[in-house]
Amino acid sequence: MDSNDIRSFIDLSGPWQAHLEPGDSRDDGSRVPERWEESVLLPGALSSQGFGDEVGVDTPWIGDIFDTSWFTEEQYEPYRRKGNIKVPYWLQPDRRYVGPAWYRKTVEVPRAMAGKRLSLVLERPHWETRLWFDGRYVGSNDSLSVPHEYDLGVTGVPGGHTIELRIDNRMIFNIGPNSHSMADHTQGDWNGVVGSIRLVASSPVWIEGLEIFPSLARRTAVVRARIGNTSGSPKRGRITIGLEGRADPPALESAPLEFPPGVSVEHLEYRLGDGLEAWDEFAPHVERLTASLTVGGIGPCDSLTSSFGLREVGTVGTRIALNGRPLFLRGTLECCVFPLTGYPPTDHEPWRTLYGRVKAHGLNHVRFHSWCPPEAAFDAADEAGVFLQIECSTWANQGAGVGTDARFDEWLYREGERIVSRFGNHPSFIMMAYGNEPDGRTEEFLGSWVSYWKGRDDRRVYTTAAGWPAIPENDYHNIPQPRAQAWGEGLDSRINAKPPETRTDYRSFVERYAKPIVSHEIGQWCSFPNFDEIEKYRGPLKAKNMEIFRDFLEAKGMGDQARDFLIASGKLQAACYKEEIESALRTPGFAGFQLLGLSDFPGQGTALVGVLDAFGDEKGYVTPAEFRESSGVTVPLALLDKRYWRVSESLEADLEVAHFGPATLDQADVAWQLLDSSGKPVADGRFPGLSIPTGSLTPVGRVSQPLSGLPSGARYELVVSVEARDAGGPHSGSFSVVGRNRWDVWAFPDRLETGVPDGVHVAHELDDASRAVLDRGGKVLLLLTPSSVDSDVALGFSSVFWNTAWTKGQAPHTLGLLCDPGHPAFADFPTRSYSDWLWWELVHGAAAMVMDRLPRGFRPLVQPIDTWFRNHRLGLLFEARVGKGSLLVSSMDLDSDLSRRLVARQMRHSLLRYMASPAFDPEAEVSFEDVVGLSKKK
After folding, report:
1. Which of 565, 568, 488, 542 has its CA nearest to residue 871?
2. Rounded Cα–Cα distance for residues 734 and 726 (Å)
3. What is the mean pLDDT of each run of 10 residues along the chain (938 residues)?
């Protein structure tokens, strides 16, 4: 944070006069309006003060609409009516103002400012500003990232002065319609200024900026001071630099210097000494360097203080390294989602809270997707020890591109320069990209862009873009692969197509690229909407999208299941994220990942991909501590070939530890336990006295535990802990757990009865023989062949990827399963109330029965959760009374290869035992025709 104790300031917050010109104004912006009809508050945005148009069917949004069904489909017709407009693809503003807006304020300059140089500073305006001072045109500014600063000259004349400001929030340059700096997907295209607004009085010779380049090896800092001079003649003086609050190292005074009119740059090398501690994520020591300016022997006439940290960033092999220590970046995205305001905060506390959540979940990195945050975000990251990837407020795609528009290309370099000059001292700012997923002449243009920045400023590492291209100029690659499911992969992804295991890693990618890889936007697993969240939207943005989805669910008669759907889908989401993250941790030499994301993304069709909601609050199905077990600083890993075991086998697991702490763990123990479903240990072991170096993956040993003698048809949990010896203190020599992780496994009998008991008729279609059994009051097990089920629902094991609307219906369409483990049908089947890895074998290749035509309120025993855009009532297993008889229907494969498919065999056994018992006595009734209607063959 830059600060100054010598300059004086006038706070301009409060009422401003306004003149509004919404829409495509023909005004070229060169003439100040004569009429000022409105009054607005700044800091603030027009739309949140009641200005702008109400949303309608023809609202000209900024942001691509890939799913146009809202405009055409009958189910959305009620939400296209005037007075009830509700859009499903992002948060909906109460009002929306687009176009130029003029703001005017008269400010009283006190006598104390007489003869001073005045400047106007606007923090976080949106977007282009033009300024007039006392009727004189001063200039314009088009940064989306840094404060707009206007030099008013030596005009410190006491009395009243008029400031007239024009802000245009239209697309000034084609940065891409989906850029999070502009798009309605996230913060939206608001008009106003939301940070501080100040008139600043300083000396006519002043320090315009400081760039601090620390060297850890030399224990020095090169200070690049930009000195401004509007006096009209050269001036001589000195610059003194020192660390705030420190006598050692002593301050450094320069030799006499000459400051010509305009802006000049002076370089000073400052010896920091050996006592200064380095900055990193575990010890984020932030220093404050003050430069003072003396001119003509009088002074100091100006000073400027800037935060920095003693640290160096580079690469070591295929990892990014901080101060020589290899990092593993455990990251999430910040997509400019601020649902109470629609724009980012400029004060510190919200950012401290945000980074606190990040670290509580074991993460250490935040990528700002196609936007750059305010300075408070950098300050808070410095304090928290969080690494930042900053981007130049652009996603040049979908009609935009790099290297194809000279005006935009030139702006991109200017914007990068402004970001680095303003925020480059922050030690948290360790990575930089042009922006997100570019189109155009990507390799040629961005190759030169990266090369320029590597030569301009070595205080961070650079890459072309988040997404692509991976070219030789990059310090690191921020690419979509590797990850567990790629965009468009659907049911062919390994998490859906291959049986569950915990050995897959990405070493082939590391070997192929031979540079650090930080995988781009991994995860994207959804949970069902949390409709309780709707009431939180008390600002200018409303969750009309969720209101639509809630209406759809209630119309299908399942409104009372919303909370159950949220928890069940969330449990599956968390399991998918655990496997996703551990795959990266299992990879030697891998540099890290960026989740999309830890919190929900309410745009692009509504992407509920977070374990936290859009406000950063927990949803109720996974705690930060639980999430952190597989994403923290020290993570034990169990490499399992499979999740399902026979009791005649031994459970085999290779144990490793991914450790990226501040130092090696000496004399550490790795302990393991096998717990039954009640949490009781049934086996344990220990690998003592290990040295676990930081920055690497350490093999520990192999668990080989016989399962004979343990109850079969049961779930067990393998728990692995890393216990480190406490150093020093009264309890020196004791151990504390520094990492713990766990995995579910299941043990099944070698042999199991699956024959059909007396009194039960098994069929694969509801034929005449089945009907006859039902007519006489008998029992029928209907095992529908999945291919015969009449359904367009793509059922998969994983949760929905991103969402089905913005991926054109990418499979799977479901968000896991809901069932009641206490139902007697599952007496011999070790299920929870939601789908965990046990269900992979049963879901794989199964079909979801669409049960919308069955009686309202009818509930299946196993219920897949449909995408919230359709909310079909689905079933994999249901029971009903049909005529005089009792029917149990399954659309899972419970027939084929049962000697190998242990889960399916166990389910079949449990269902048949249930049907043979008096407990099989369904209450709900359906017609024979209703059941026939579930199949294609009717």
Report:
1. 565
2. 6
3. 76 97 76 93 96 96 95 97 96 96 96 93 98 96 98 87 97 97 93 98 96 96 97 95 93 96 97 94 98 92 97 98 98 97 97 98 98 98 98 97 97 98 98 98 98 98 98 98 93 97 97 96 98 97 98 98 98 98 98 97 97 98 98 98 98 98 96 98 98 97 97 98 73 80 98 96 95 97 96 97 95 98 98 98 98 95 98 98 97 97 98 98 96 86
Q: Which pLDDT score is estimated for 298?
A: 85
Question: C-alpha distances in angstroms, 152 versus 32, 131, 160, 398?
Answer: 18, 10, 15, 39
Task: For residues 7 and 301, give the distance between their C-alpha atoms in angstroms, rounded to a whole number.
Answer: 9
DSSP, residue by residue, 160-204: EEEEEEEEE-S-SS---TT-TTT-TTTT----EE-S-EEEEEE-S
Rounded Cα distance between 163 and 359, Å, is: 43
pLDDT of residue 3: 57
Q: Ramachandran region of residue 621, left (φ > 0), alpha (ψ -120 to 50) or beta?
A: alpha
The pLDDT of residue 4: 62
Q: How far is CA 93 from CA 212, 379, 415, in A?
A: 42, 30, 28
Question: How many Cβ atoms are within 10 Å of 488's Cβ, its own excluded?
Answer: 12
Edge-to-edge strand list for the sheet holding 634-639: 634-639, 650-659, 696-706
Following DSSP, what letter does each residue of 383-409 receive, concatenated?
HHT-EEEEE-S----SS--BSS-HHHH
- Among 292, 317, 295, CA closest to 305: 292
- Residue among 711, 602, 171 at smallest CA distance from 405: 171
Report helix, strand or coil for 650: strand
Q: What is the rounded CA–CA span in Å between residue 270 and residue 534?
A: 54
Q: Exposed, middle or buried by CB within 10 Å (0-12, 13-18, 19+), for 71?
A: exposed
Name the CA dihedral angle for 147, 151, 156, 160, rounded to a multiple of 10 degrees: -60
pLDDT recorded at residue 729? 42
Coil, strand or helix at 371 = coil
CB 192 within 8 A of CB 45: yes
Give the three-state DSSP class for 814.
strand
Residue 733 is predicted with a pLDDT of 62
Helix, strand, coil in percent for the chain, rounding step 5 = 20, 35, 45
**Residue 281: closest CA among 212, 358, 368:** 358
- For the chain, how many residues are written? 938
pLDDT for position 730: 43
Q: Which residues contact 74 (CB under 8 A, 6 or more apart)?
A: none
DSSP designation for 532: G
